Amino acid sequence: MSVIGHGIDLVDVAEMRRWIDDPRDPLIPRCFVQAELDEIGVGADRIERLAGRFAAKEAVLKALGTGFGAGVAFTDVVIHRAPGTTPEVRLSGGAAKAAAALGVTAWRLSISHTSGLAMASVLALGAETHARGS
Known about the structure:
The chain has one domain (2-130): CATH 3.90.470.20. Strands 1-5-4 form a three-stranded antiparallel sheet. Strands 2-3 form a two-stranded antiparallel ribbon. The chain is built from five helices and five strands. It has helices at 13-21, 27-31, 34-40, 46-64, 93-102; strands spanning 2-12, 77-80, 88-91, 104-113, 117-126. By secondary structure, the protein is of the alpha+beta class. The longest helix is centred in the middle third of the chain and has 19 residues, at 46-64. A hairpin with a 7-residue loop joins strand 2 and strand 3.
């Protein structure tokens, strides 16, 4: 396995709260699928967990080198985490096509958050022959 891409993102939790509360452009339906919202739940640290998942989505697309737009939607990247397990990256649509074109076969994702900041770091892994720069 080799590293095809790496992405990292940092999100200000207070800014995330403002984005969520903005009635002009609701962030949650644009960025999260229902399964993610169900996993996040409604606890006191809900915004921090949303910010962590948002950072993870951004980090994934940085690792792919695509960003959002140009055929890739926020909901093409789903972050799943069952209790007691590490978070998983699940792709569909344009994000899945970009990953396949690069030869990504696995992901390693880490998410962390506090009341003020959320961050995520992700490695896109694949076969040695598909690594960028090879």
